Structures are given as structure tokens and as C-alpha cells.
Amino acid sequence: MSGDKRSGKGKGYGTAESPTMSNGHAFQSETENAEASASDDNTLDAILVRIGQFGRYQIINYVLLCIPMVFNAFFSISYVFTASTVVHRCNITQCDSPSSLYEEPWLNFTVPYKNSEWDACNRYVNIFEVNQSLITDPSSDMCAPEYFNNDKEKCGNDLKFRDEEKTVSTEFGIFCDDEWKLTLAGTINNVGQFVGIPVGGFFADRYGRRTMLAFAGALSALMGIIRSLSSNYYMFLSFEFLDMAVGSTLFPTAFLLAIELVGPKRRVAAATIITIFYALGEAFLGILASQIQNWRWLLRVLYAPAILQILFLWILPESVRWLLSQGQEQRAASVLRRAAKINKRPLPEDQLNELIANNQTKLLQANESQYPIRRAARFFIWRIANCCFCWFTHTLIALGLSLNSVNLGGSKYNNFMLNGFVQIPGLLLPLIIMDRIGRRYSLCASMLICAICMGASAAVGSDDYAGSLTLFLIGKLAITCSFQILYFFTSEIFPTNVRNSLLSLCSMVGRVGSMLAPQTTLLAKYYAHAPSILFATFALVSGVLTLGFPETADKVLPTTIEDARDLNGARKIPTDRNVETEEEVPRRMC
Questions:
Q1: Which of 55, 223, 362, 522 has its CA 20 to 30 A from that of 400?
Q2: Residue 462 near residue 468, CB atoms below 8 Å
Q3: Cα gap 407→420, rounded to integer Å
């Protein structure tokens, strides 16, 4: 759900991976701000504390910023329903009539039964095929076992559907051997995100986060509405790409705006809660899709309200940190005065003046020296490779499970809804376990639990719906938990001056996993449990390899390459202080 995270003159701009894929970047940005606070007393954070860390002003804007998170969930994974295959079987000329149903008693001798369902693309050969043109009554005596043998034939698009659902598949005749075109929509969607996230970051750096949020949301809504008018498959595919190319920046932009609104002690809660709204968006998508089973109208319902995001230009404040990075100190001061007024808290002018003076000094010193990326790569080649593989594994499994949830059996809408809801405890669990058992062991244990559940689901079999669904949900919870930990962990294992670049590299490689994830559903056509075995294998291997990372819990963030190289022996942050400094809080968040 990759890309760079830059803002203005060196400030952070987060990026998103899929589904919850930007908080690690944002936390890392806040960490670097915390490191800078040692020398400049973090005046902006001090002002946020003074005017209220999560007062009325922050709550109003925070609620508004949760809206694009929900829309981003709709936009990034709606293809699960719009480009899904529809349950069908071959039409049997000798037996089927306009009033016949998907389930009929004569299917036992006319259609093969495999993987706990009727074969969607093959039927048994009628031994009197030469006489089929003479058949006028589908309920004729020729609909009997003696007229069919065990040889199979493909039925093309001569199909009988179980439901009234209308998707791209039914409208454009994409079935059986052409079903790869349906999964291609998911891959194209993720290619659009791969392109859109760094491009969106560039424009947000140049024109502001609020501006980018408003225009990206409205343009993405427009692309979705046009997609609902598609006259052919290739038009649908083109606007699937354009939708994500302009709209994938919604998650990271809204995320950073949200956590920058609040004080240091509230950032962990703010980051976790707003990420949960993405999971809620996925669950709500399942509910809407169950009620609107026409892909064109589903897109219109999902996208039309999102056009109103253009109003953010007038109702949302611009990021104070971005304004400062652009040298627009007076606009930043105006935003802070308004926040103080709404929160009914005093804000001395001398503190604002100190903020402006410090910011002007920092801008003059912006061209500081940095460590060469090549030198860092030589020191951390194994760590970088392991990190890239870990990100690839997480994006592949996290998105792959969401896409395969609709193939579990039972109601695909309920399965997808549960897939969204189960992510909520997965996002909260890291806050409990990371500091208690450490980042490395938390990450490893979560991935191994996912691997065990995926392997066990293959052993349970698809006939046991309750068992396979339970194992699926536990596995999804585990990979969500480990993905959240990975965001924190990756931002702590590299030194400050190359952290942005190496974190972006890992997440960009991870995006390849999300591009491949839609294709995993095709594996089930060859072996029903192939996707589960694939996910289990990657989770097991990557989970074991995470033990090769250094532990970073309660340790001072590495500033130099030498600090990062010696993390296993790094000093720990004191834990016996009664009052946390503004520097310590963001460090513990990462």
C-alpha cells in the first residue's frame, strides 16, 4: 500500500503501502524531529503542549481527516468486487431452461464437481451431440445419465449464474481462461499506487499537504465516476490506474496532517486511531458491496461523495510544519493562534516569535552534510536485503489475504467485512507487546503465528468453513500486527541521515509484493490451498530471518552509521523518569 517521504526543505512526508502503510514513515519523521529537539528545544512541540495536545481544535480537524482514510480504503481495493468473478457453471442445453437454477439435481451427471463446487468452465460431453440442434424442450428425455459420458468439454460463455451480481466479468464476458484479466485490475491498481505515492509526495512538498489532499481526493473521485461509465475492459483498466495514480496519496497526507495536529504525548494514539479508520473503510466496503451488486452503481456510491473533499481547501488548516519548512512563518503563526483560540488556551506572542526565529535559523542551515548512501549500503547490505524481503513478504501476504478472503466459502461479503474488522485488534496489539518482549521477537512471533495459521488452513480443508475462516482471521490479525511493528522497527535500525532513503527503498521493494498479490488468487485454480501454502512459506522464512535484525526497544535512535552498526550494544533510554521529555516520546513511538 513506498516512495519517498519528503516535505519542503527536509521535513518528512509519509508514504503508504496498502492498506496501513504510512505510519512507519510518519513515526520516523517525528523521530527525526525529536532528535533535532535536543538542540532547538522543539519549540513547535512546546507550543502544541501549551495550546492543548488534543483539544477541541484538534478533534474537529482529526475527525475530518478520518474521512479521506475511509475513502482511500474504498479506492484502493474496490476492485475486489467490481472486477470479481461471479459464481457460475456451464449451461446444459438438454436440461437447462430460462427458469432453472444454479443448483439442479441433474448436475451430478452433467457437470464435474471439484473443490467443493461445480466446475465453472467444463461440462460432461453429451454422447448425442449431433442431435442437440433438434432439441426444443430442455426437459426432454435426453436430460438423463445415459446421454452423458465422463469426457469433459469447455462451455465458453454459455453459462448459468448463481446470483444477480453484475461485475466487469459478466458485462465484458471475462470468464474461465480470461480470468487473468480480472486479477490484472488489482495489479494495475497497485502499479498506480507505485507511481502515485512518490509523485503525490512531490506535489505535496511543493504545494502543501492540505492542497494535495483536497485535489487528490476530488480527482480520484472523478476518475472513479468515469470508470463507472466504462464501455470496455481497457477503459476500465486505464481509469483504475489513473484513479490510484492521483488518489494513492490520500492515506499518507491525511495521516501526517493528523499526527502533526496533536502534541507529542498524543501522537501514538492519534496515529493508531486514524489507521484504524482504513480498516473500518475496508469493512464498510464489504457491507456496501453486499447491498449494491452492480459494479457501476457501487463505484458511483463509493466515489461520488468523495468529490466533496475539494472543500478541504477551505475548512482544513495547512500543515504548520510544511508552512515553516517553506518559510511561511506568519501563516504558521496564524494557524497556531486560531488553534489556541478554539481550545481556549493562552499562547504568548514571545513564544511564537521564538518559533519564527528558530525556524529562520534552521532554514539558513538546511544544507547540512549527509552520509553518502553508498557508504551506508556497504555497512548494512545484509540488513537492507533482509528489510526489503520482509517488506515484500508483508505486502504480499497482507493484501493477498484480503483478496483471497472472498474465496473462502460462505458469503464473500461477510468474509471481506470480517477481514476489515479483524485488522483493528491487529493494529492495537503492537502497542502492548513491542515494549514488553521487544521489536524483534514481536515481529518474529507474529509472522510465525501467521505462517502456522496459513499452513493449518491448508490441512483443515475448504469443507470446514468455520475452521478455515477462524484460521484465516487469526492469520490476518497476526500479519496486520507484524506489519504495524515493521513500520516502527524499520525506522529504528538505520542512522538518521540515510533513514529516509533506506526506508523508502525497503517500502518500494515491498510494493512489488502488493503488485503480485492479486495474482495469487489464480493459484487456487490449480490447487485450492496454493495461496495459503505460499503465504505460509514466505511468512515462515521471513519470520526466522527477522531474528537477524538488532533489537531496538528502549534504545537511543542511531544518529551515525557507527551507532546503527553497534545497535546490539547501544545504550538504553532511561525508564525511571517521572516525566517524559518531548524527545523521548516520539523515540518510543518509532
A1: 223
A2: yes
A3: 15
Query: Residue 20's pLDDT is what?
Result: 38
Res 41: pLDDT? 42
Sequence-ordered list of residues with C-beta below 8 angstroms from that of 462, at least 6 positions apart, any chain: 115, 116, 408, 409, 468, 528, 529
Distance CA 71, CA 305 (A): 9
Q: Which pLDDT does position 300 carry in this prediction?
A: 96
Cell 472513479 locates to 224
List the one residue out of 196, 186, 205 whose CA is nearest residue 83: 186
Spatial contact of 574 and 486, defined as CB atoms under 8 Å apart:
no
Query: What is the number of residues in the chain?
Result: 590
User: Going by C-beta distance under 8 Å and a sequence separation of 6 or more, which residues neighbour residue 163?
Assistant: 86, 87, 293
| CB of 167 closer than 8 Å to CB of 85 | yes
Spatial CB neighbours of 278, under 8 Å, sequence gap ≥ 6: 19, 20, 69, 70, 72, 73, 251
Type of residue found at 372: P
| Spatial distance between the Cα atoms of 332 and 319, rounded to a whole number of angstroms | 8
With H, G, I as helix, E, B as strand and everything else as coil, classify residue 124.
strand
Residues of the chain below pLDDT 70? 1-42, 128-141, 365-374, 376, 496-501, 557, 559, 568-590
Q: Kindly calculate the radius of gyration of the chain based on its CA atoms and give it in whole angstroms.
A: 27
What are the grid coordinates assigned to 326, written together?
517553506
Q: Tell me the β-bridge partners of 7.
A: 11
d(CA 454, CA 472): 7
